[in-house]
Structures are given as structure tokens and as C-alpha cells.
Amino acid sequence: MSSLAENIQSIDQALGQPSLSIGLMLIQGWEKPVDYALYEICHHNIGVITSVTLEIGTAVLIERNENHIIPLIVHQAVPKENLPDGYNRYRLISVDPDTDFETLIPELSQRTFAINNKQLYHVRFARFKTEIPTRVDAKTFGSPELYTMKTINISKSGFLLASPPGFRVPFNEATLLELTVHVEDEEPICFLGKVIRCEFDFEKKMKRYGVNICEITTEMRERYDSFIEDAEHRKNRQIFRLLNIPMPV
After folding, report:
1. Which distant-in-sequence residues (6+ apart) come within 8 Å of 115 by Cβ?
2. What's the first-to-final CA gap in the chain, in angstroms?
3. CA–CA separation, 83 vs 92, rounded Å?
4. What's the pTM?
5. How many separate helices (H) and strands (E) can be counted in the chain?
6. What's the CATH superfamily of 128-238?
7. Of 54, 66, 135, 184, which one has the greatest count of Cβ atoms within 10 A?
């Protein structure tokens, strides 16, 4: 059995589901490849689950094949909620400006992952906090009543929204919404979304809504993806400043 197959089998047993990886993870001076599973992905960043401890700033290589090697740096340790004992989460950023992890996994565009009809361990699009919240107008499908909310974080699959103070926004889980995202200096981006999570924050007297995109035109999708990629680029600049290394161009 190859090293990659052995690593995948080991972490699959720990997670209880088949997992997804994109090649051997190698660290200089280590005898064996690092066992890992993807849980998060975007253009230049990945999130991984692994049984080893990685230090911030560690240089890592993902070897797709002998002609395709992706250099990365560990930039964040992520809280361990809902992980098996002995496993950790980390985020890594590519130092190759030509990297596009999303193109390495075509299944991302359909949001389906299966091997031999078995569901894979969940892989999500990376979420980016909006330091300056973006206004999103939402209403139930066909309703004239509009509710204005603000983004907390955004991703290519949807976003987390904060309601105004008070609990008058009436949306529940599975509510279908008409959404209008007000992008700075551009025409709004409009599409349909569905509430997948509703949280009450009694201290702040507000609700938070997790919303997934469920229907969007090609033009609006291109504009929305560009909006997310701009957010990722801003985040990447912050990461490289914290790592104290030049941002690749």
C-alpha cells in the first residue's frame, strides 16, 4: 500500500468517513508524509485535520505528482471542536501565486463528494470575516416585507448574517429567501438562498442566520465569486504581514 493510501486509511478510521486529500503532505526533515484530511478550501488556502502538531510558520509541501508540488505555510491553528482525540485543525496558505485549490477539486462546483457511493467527510468553502459588514436585504419568497441585515462572514456557498437588534426578523430554518447583496460601488448581487441555521444571541438581543445559496444566475455567480475572492485577497495580505514574509505576486 502506498504512503498516501496508508495515510488516508488511518485518518478515515479516526473520522469515521472517507476523507479527501490532494496529494502527499511533506515537511523537510520528517521521515514520513503527514496524514491529513481536507475540511476547508478556497483559491489559495486549505484547512486540514491531522494527527500531528504543526507550528505556525512551518513550511509544507503538497506533492500532487513529481511535476506538481505546491509550497505552503501553516498560518493558523483552529479550535478542535468535534474532532477525535489526538487530532488538530490547521489552516495553510500557498506561497505560489498561481495556486488555485478549487480547480484541483472539480466536485466543489457541485458540492458533492462521493467515492463508491459513500459520502465523504465534509469539505466546506473557506469563510472570511467581514471586518466592514456588507448589507444584505432579505425577504421571504414573494413577500413585500424586507429585512436589512449585515454579514458576519462570507463564503462561496453563502454567509452568516446578523439581524438588527431585537428578534422581529421571522425567518426559520429552511426558509427560502430572496437576497440582495449591496456590494460597494457596484450594482447589487441578487439570488435565492435558504436558511440552514438560526441562532439566538440573547446578550446582544439579535439573531444570526446561516444562509446557503440555492439558485443564482451565471452572471450573478461570477460577480458573487469575485466579491468573495476580493475578501480572500484582503485576508491573504493580513496573513503574510503576520508571517512577516512578502506576499507572492
Report:
1. 18
2. 39
3. 18
4. 0.84
5. 3, 16
6. predicted glycosyltransferase like domains (2.40.10.220)
7. 54
